Amino acid sequence: MTLSADTRETPRWERFTPSQRLARFAVYLGMVMVVVWSVRNVRIIPEFLYDAHNQMADLFTRMWPPDLAYYPSTVHGALIETLHIATLGTILAIVMAVPVGLMAARNIVPFRLVNEFAKLILVASRSVNSLVWALLFVAVFGPGALAGTIAIAFRSIGFVGKLLAEAIEEANAGPIEALTAAGASWPKVLIKGYWPQVQPAFWSIALFRWDINVRESAVLGLVGAGGIGLILDSAMNFFQWTRVATILIAIFTVVILAEIVVTRIRKRLI
Amino acid sequence: MSDSLRDAKAKSDDARKPDRGGNPPVRPAANGQDAVLSLRGLNKEYERGKPVLTDISLDFPARGVVAIIGPSGTGKSTLIRCINRLVEPTSGEVLLGGRDLTKLRGARLRAARREIGMVFQEYNLVERLSVIENLLCGRLGYVPLWRVWTRRYPDADIARAFELLDRVGLGEFATRRADALSGGQRQRVGIARAVMQSPKLLLADEPTSSLDPRTSVEIMTLMRDIAAERDIPVIINIHDVALAKRFATRIVGMSEGRVVYDGPPEDLADSHLQQIYGRGDAGEWIG
To answer: What residue ranges define each of the domains in chain B, with the CATH number in brackets?
Structure first.
């Protein structure tokens, strides 16, 4: 069969090929199936679901009015301890994450094995929740703020190290080449070539992680690792709902304040 | 004059005479004495069996501007980076002042690198540092680590940096951040940084390719003059034939990783350009 010259086809364009369309449909179908499957698995108890709103209203009436006198006597101290856990934990995490992050960056250490080892450390740190880390360290150091601080630090290594390694890998290679050509040794290239480029990302990562750690350290007390979670746990165990309310308000306020502070500083950095 | 020197001179005079067959004149295989830099049988393969540079042997005298011309992808950048070993040559020798740089490692390699200043197409300044600190980065090969860390550069270096900054016409930009400058200004900083190294040799990899024509001429003029003032030879990769002919005292033409022309700019004929850049009317490109 020959194509005659005058049967000109109008050019057609479609975003996806038929096989891509099929693949996309399969993905959508898969997502619906996952939702159906998980709802079946959760086994919702209808009796509890039906009166959930009553329970909520009941809880709120029991919480009202918050026991504000409880704040200066106990909550304040615990809150400060929480902030200390978050801050110290973040600093400790950065100290440990910087070398691991450097090792993970392929443009700094050109050995695949070292990169992979560093990434293994980072993944291990991230894959364990801070509450689980806290349980572990409470067993090691006994209950208290020390266990909490170490837990926060270990959980943060992965986060800080991974983002730091990515920032380093994104650094422009041009200045590095120029400094190497000038005869600069490796540490000098690191200080004058990489650090100025990574600096904004570094402070941004550190602040962001501190912000997260303020929130995380608030619950560490549930497993005995110090901070405001400790008194929250006991207040709930004794059904002192007005005290629970005070503690929740305190946590909420601090988290909002941390968020505002971090956002402001980050804006200035960039 | 010693016998060996005279011999070498006679030989080189001989070789300078152009070949009757119309082949490009072959440069003298000068003796190591008056060449500040000699490349001997330089080869580079990024992948096995795919040579980027093939058997490059060149001598660069202690003064003057040598322009290396050729189409993109012909190995000019690789060649220039093999000199200070930003790229590792596969085989061959790079002799700087008679010393083979390809054998050096660690501190000795760094000490050799600081004697070779380099200017880049994309300027390669540290954008978030001030202009003056970018200049001081040219001293990184000399200044001890603690001084770099604490930013306590020697007074002599700082004085020199300000002096050089004035020389390239950016005196009032010392405390500006490098990313606040225009392309031409950045390249001036790049040149000043390279000269801060007190180099014996200046390399430039397409220093004008990111600049407009007028700025290109300014940059080439500055580079030629500043090198002449300090008696430093310059090797420039450049694809702009007109600029090369205007500023160079010698032109090396490359095609597919080989040297196909080596001689004075006046002798560079259209036939050579066709050999370097392929078929076409050479007059069109060089205007």
So the answer is: 3-115+199-286 (3.40.50.300)
DSSP output for A120-175: HHHHHHHHS-HHHHHHHHHHHH-SSHHHHHHHHHHHHHHHHHHHHHHHHHTS-HHH
| B143: CB partners within 8 A, 6+ apart | B136, B153, B154, B157
pLDDT at B19: 41
What are the structure tokens assigned to B91, written together?
A: 């085989």
Bridge partner list, B252: B68, B262
Q: Over the stretch B114-166, which tens digit does the pLDDT of each residue have?
A: 999 999 999 999 999 999 999 999 999 999 999 999 999 999 999 999 999 99
> Which segments of chain B does DSSP mark as H helices, in order?
3-16, 76-83, 106-113, 131-136, 145-150, 155-167, 183-196, 213-229, 241-247, 270-277, 282-286
Tens digits of residue pLDDT in A61-88: 888 888 888 888 888 998 999 999 999 9
| Residue that has been written with the tokens 């189409």 in this structure | B71
Q: Which two tokens stand for residue A68?
A: 């504000």
Give which of A185, A195, A203 to mutate to test B binding, by max B Cβ within 10 Å: A185
Q: Which of A182, A187, A193 sits opposite B113 (nearest CB)?
A: A182
Please report, for chain A, the start and end positions of each structural domain, with discontinuous segments joined by +.
67-269
pTM for the complete prediction? 0.80
Contacts of A172 in chain B (CB under 8 A): 127
Burial (CB count within 10 angstroms: exposed 0-12, middle 13-18, buried 19+), residue B106: exposed
| 0.90 surpassed by complex ipTM | no
Domain A67-269, second-level architecture: Orthogonal Bundle (1.10)
pLDDT at B1: 40
Kind plus residue range of the DSSP H or E element containing B47:
strand B35-47
